[in-house]
Design goal:
With about 140 residues, this protein is mostly beta strands. It has one domain. The protein contains two helices and nine strands; from the N terminus they run H-E-E-E-E-E-E-E-E-E-H.
Length: about 140
């Protein structure tokens, strides 16, 4: 994402980035943005992304996270909602409950929590919980 290894292409790719928080940056509160954002620093609070959120290997996040696509490479505690997809990289340490229609986890990742796989992005519309109808497809019931 940040270049092809020979030093070219980084200006265009950096221009596509809406927000970047370096590893020495700490933020408390609600962080909201549209587009693509990368966080390598520390965040406490809430992150709301309309787009792609990349949490780098150095990220330390204690937060409720909601985004279209959430890619985690660092440490996360809290709740993750991916309206389209959540991806945990092998460097991730995640102690969180996850709700998303598409979930991938690389070998080596540490994941402690629960994951709700919902049928489509519309079912993962907010961080305020789910109804029984959203949890179970038609014809299926809880035991």
């Amino acid at each position: 994402m940040f270049g092809n290894g020979n030093g070219t292409g980084t200006q265009k790719e950096s221009a596509d980035m809406t927000i970047y928080m370096g590893k020495n940056v700490e933020f408390k509160g609600t962080l909201s943005f549209e587009g693509t954002g990368r966080i390598d620093g520390k965040v406490e609070g809430k992150i709301l992304a309309k787009g792609v959120l990349l949490l780098g290997e150095g990220a330390a996040v204690s937060s409720e996270i909601e985004g279209d696509t959430v890619v985690v490479g660092g440490n996360v505690e809290g709740k993750i909602i991916g309206r389209q997809k959540v991806q945990l990289l092998k460097t991730a340490v995640v102690n969180a409950d996850i709700s998303t229609p598409s979930f991938s986890i690389e070998e080596g990742c540490q994941f402690n929590g629960s994951c709700r796989m919902l049928g489509n992005a519309n079912a993962v519309s907010s961080a305020h919980g789910f109804t029984r109808e959203e949890e179970f497809p038609a014809g299926l019931t809880a035991r």
